[in-house]
Write a structure and sequence with these properties.
Largest interface: A-B, 32 and 20 residues
Radius of gyration of chain B: 12 Å
Helix content of chain A: 25-40%
Largest sheet of chain A: 8 strands, mixed
Number of strands of chain A: 8
CATH class of chain B: Alpha Beta
Order of helices and strands of chain A: HHEHEEEHEEHEE
Radius of gyration of chain A: 17 Å
Helix content of chain B: 10-25%
Shape of chain A: globular
CATH superfamily of chain A: Molybdopterin biosynthesis MoaE subunit
CATH superfamily of chain B: Beta-grasp domain
CATH architecture of chain B: Roll
CATH topology of chain B: Ubiquitin-like (UB roll)
Number of helices of chain B: 2
Oligomer: heterodimer
CATH class of chain A: Alpha Beta
């Protein structure tokens, strides 16, 4: 599975054939449960053969154990419209490759239950130089929050819960 | 016609369900929405967009038998 994802890492050179091939490929972003540190470490180590890369930037979103009235966050339950979410991630991916000079991009977002202290979002940008990675990473995380149909239900240790407010999607 | 309704996020609480097969004579999204707001008055309290067959649409979008209609509150990923 990770091998297959790694295969999709590269931006293909512009051209009819490569664009067609790129369209056929699926980048499954949604993963059930937390994003594990082993998965993240594997993703990093697999880039050692991509010697044109000079800089990686990684964003990890982690579930906070926030205090809420008389309790604390136990976990966050992520839900999504899977098909719309994957489409939205694909759009983000296409825009990002047009906007930034990236060599590789990986995005993984949890679906289902993720406990406090665990990682639910992994964005991994690889470029020739560091300045490009910082710009791309910030833009990507902001876009994910604004445009992907994912919802968060915060479950508390005392058994109560709250749906977290989000951004209104663009038309 | 038969529509497949999907509710997400806080709207699952507002309607008490995540999905529903719904028989409706509504010909567009707006009239379906009005019907549902009568059945589930809690919906009126919330902001949401509507998707048809996985695309966010305007309220005037025509509906056809078998359409999947999604009710999408503000996104909160990340």
């Amino acid at each position: 599975m990770t091998e297959m994802k790694f295969h999709f890492c590269h931006r293909l050179p512009a051209g009819k054939h490569s664009m067609m091939e790129e369209k056929k490929k699926k980048h499954n972003v949604l993963v059930e449960g937390r994003v594990t540190s082993t998965f993240i470490a594997d993703a990093i180590s697999k880039h050692s053969s991509k010697t044109e890369i000079g800089a990686h930037a990684i964003f990890l979103g982690q579930v906070r154990r926030d205090a809420q009235k008389d309790s604390f966050v136990k976990n966050i339950e992520y839900s999504a419209h899977p098909e719309m979410a994957e489409k939205a991630f694909e759009k983000i991916r296409e825009k990002a490759f047009k906007k930034f000079d990236m060599i590789c991009l990986h995005i993984h977002h949890s679906i289902g239950m993720v406990d406090a202290g665990e990682v639910s979002l992994f964005v991994f940008v690889s470029c020739k130089h560091r300045a490009q990675t910082f710009g791309a990473l910030k833009w990507l995380v902001d876009e994910i929050k604004k445009t992907v149909p994912i919802w968060k239900k915060e479950n508390y240790e005392n058994g109560s819960y709250k749906w977290l407010d989000g951004d209104q999607p663009p038309m | 016609m038969k529509l497949n309704l999907l509710f997400f996020g806080i709207l699952t609480d507002a309607t008490g369900k995540a999905k529903q097969e719904f028989e409706s004579d509504a010909t567009d999204v707006d009239s379906l929405n009005k019907q549902l707001q009568i059945i589930y008055p809690e919906l009126i309290k919330h902001t949401y967009k509507i998707g048809v067959n996985s695309e966010i649409v305007s309220r005037g979008k025509k509906l056809y038998d078998g359409d999947e209609v999604s009710f999408l509150p503000p996104f909160a990923g990340g």
